[in-house]
Design brief:
The chain has 78 residues and is mostly beta strands. Helix content is 13%, strand content 33%.
């Protein structure tokens, strides 16, 4: 896996409100235009799953809550 983090544009997360119940882990906001532009610009990072393109992401926990990065891990061929 590359050490460089590639943050997914168009997805934003926020910590839950302090009054939210324990089962609420946060809020996700999706900006479709920004996400689609990111996907077009990073088509080479897409993988194939059962004939469909997909973008593998990791959900990480940082100082400001959860965030998404592109999962760039590649298995080594033997």
């Amino acid at each position: 896996m590359s050490n460089e983090k590639i943050y997914v544009k168009g997805l934003r997360t926020f910590k839950p409100n302090e009054k939210a119940p324990d089962f609420v882990k946060g809020t996700l906001i999706i900006s479709p235009n920004e996400l689609m532009e990111f996907l077009r610009e990073n088509e080479g990072m897409m993988t194939d799953y059962k004939g469909t393109k997909q973008l593998r992401c990791q959900i990480l926990d940082g100082n400001n809550g959860l965030y998404f990065t592109v999962d760039t891990f590649k298995t080594e061929e033997k």
